[in-house]
Amino acid sequence: MANRLDLENSTHDVIVIGGGPSGSSCGYWLAKSGWDTVVLEKKQFPREKTCGDGLTPRSVKQLEDMGLGTDLGSYHRYEGLRAVAFNRELELKWPKADDLQTYGYCVTRYDLDYMVASQAVKYGALLRQKSQAESLIFEENSDKVIGVNVLGPDGNRYQLYSKVVVIADGANSRIGRSIGISRDRSYPLGLAIRGYFYSPKHDDPFIESHLDIRDEEGSVMPGYGWIFPLGDGRVNVGAGLLNTSNRWKGYNTSKLMDAFVAQISGRWKLTTDSAIAEPTGGKLPMGLTVGPRVGKGWMIVGDAGGSINPFNGEGIAYAYETGRLASTVIDEALRLYDEVSTEQFNSILRKYNMILEDNYRDYYRVASIFVEAISRPKLLKFLISNGMRSKTIMEWVLRVMANLVREEDKGFVEYALSAAEYAARVFKPNLPQTLVDSPNSLKIQSLTS
User: Fold this and answer.
1) Are 328 and 53 in contact (CB under 8 A)?
2) Class for domain 11-77+107-184+287-354, per CATH?
3) Each residue of 59-80: pLDDT tens digit?
């Protein structure tokens, strides 16, 4: 993959900070639309990234739309989710949802991010690897962003200028924090850890989720554990936890990982010798509770904007989607760049906020109710143990949690979710401020175009 550095201190249409799923997706769609787009990636592809490595039908849809369906075909395809909890298990195939596929893939981020970034380059994006975005450049005496200060692979510093900067530097978003982006701390943060193991079940046709994950003392915790088969001799094993109370804040996820591996070791034939490397972890800001999301000359996408699904911790699909949504708004703004004032240009960029809310706000509002529910161990046990008695119920749970609701199902689901809202008022959950003032009618939308 080319890493051209012949245009230092140059001007472009868009600079994207970060070459992960959201940044490369945004870069791909902008470059395909003909815009001069630079993607800054601080590391060298291919590179490791902590993730569950599971692609749901929503992710598959976005990757296929980027022309990567054939590439995906060389990786392990799986048919659905095996839910395990309280001595029961159910195999749930991915349900049909509008124009989404009924299967997913397991692909390591080592391969996946390189694949998508390469596709962006193929369509005209300029990828600058081993190039660290150090800070943003502002217009003199203004808070308008006009470029990025970059530390290049040769150790030299230079400036890149653009009409729009897209911040896609991940969950910790150092660049985002530098301009005042912050997480609503009234909403729980996800904590996750994963490792790779050799397993004879590496080609299992189902990913597996354990909904009754327990700590080292055997107590049920607000989270879940997963095993995602990669089809190459390895499985991705991990555990996620919501820090829903002081009890879980600062919890040692390495202990959680050890307890979960012990819980599933016989089932997946895992041993101390089958561990490939030390597990790695990270924080998961969820539910679009990071903001502001757009400003003068900039916007934020993917994990940097807290786009992770609170229901299941899925981040890749929403990274691709938010990157794509951002590109549509930027495309509109750039087409009018020479015809409108600076304020009008920034007003067009602010449409990104409305589009995000139209696509996700009500869904994430209901997810916040779910998060509140599972923070209560007794209620969590009651809901899951009873739900696991009915495959029909769990199929609906899978459909809702994976955001795979069909158009013809929305009436029923809206009724069910309205009931959930009523229950939430009884529970009086501490909803994040960004989710408080939502419309009365619930909408669950899929990004399909």
Assistant:
1) no
2) alpha beta
3) 999 999 999 999 999 999 999 9
